[in-house]
Write a structure and sequence with these properties.
Blueprint (H helix, E strand, L loop, with lengths): L6 H10 L7 E4 L10 E3 L2 E4 L10 H18 L5 E3 L6 H12 L2 H4 L17 H7 L7 H14 L7 H11 L11
Antiparallel strand pairs: 1-3, 1-4, 2-3
Helix pairs in contact: 2-3, 2-7, 3-6, 3-7
């Protein structure tokens, strides 16, 4: 993990004469970003830092990321997560979204392409047959990471950032999450 932020933040900070944009951008199409949490219709900028620099940063921003993702995935939009190295912060946010969102939203590829009429909800067995299910547990996070690493072999989320994912999703742990 690094302290520096997402490419959207860096690019816009250069344009405005500011230095060092920190964060991760979730976007549909490139829009102007800013400092702090910034949302437009198609863009959410989160000023994320590695756990080395801020031990609660990811945990603070998971709710905003989940709300943004929930809204756009419900509209059948695709999401793009960007961070400087693509192997730590964005992987942790992606894991958090896969754990936190309802299965049809977290795995839109299992839904029909574009229904002409309202479709009946898929049965839980049909959903689990076509997409993985990750329970909100430490083991669920491990399974989710294995799934993500099968698609992004270079993914190397840091232990501290994974702790923050669990802290955000399981607040009752009070930071005590065992090996993570």
């Amino acid at each position: 993990g690094t302290e520096s932020g997402g490419e959207i933040g860096k690019e816009n900070d250069r344009e405005s004469g500011k230095e060092g944009g920190n964060g991760l951008a979730m976007k549909q199409q490139q829009q102007q970003g800013g400092e702090g949490v910034y949302e437009e219709q198609w863009h959410l900028y989160l000023p994320l830092k590695s756990s080395k620099y801020d031990r609660l940063c990811i945990a603070r921003h998971v709710p905003a990321a989940a709300a943004f993702a929930r809204k756009h995935l419900a509209l059948r939009h695709r999401l793009l997560l960007i961070c400087p190295d693509g192997v730590d912060l964005s992987v942790c946010i992606c894991a958090a979204l896969l754990l936190a969102l309802p299965q049809p939203l977290a795995h839109p590829s299992s839904a029909p392409a574009a229904p002409a009429a309202p479709a009946a909800p898929a049965s839980p067995s049909a959903q689990s047959a076509s997409s993985p299910h990750f329970p909100l547990t430490k083991d669920g996070l491990k399974a989710c990471l294995a799934f993500l690493c099968s698609h992004v072999p270079a993914a190397m989320p840091s232990r501290g950032n994974l702790k923050q994912v669990l802290q955000a999703l399981l607040p009752s742990t009070h930071g005590c999450v065992g090996d993570y």
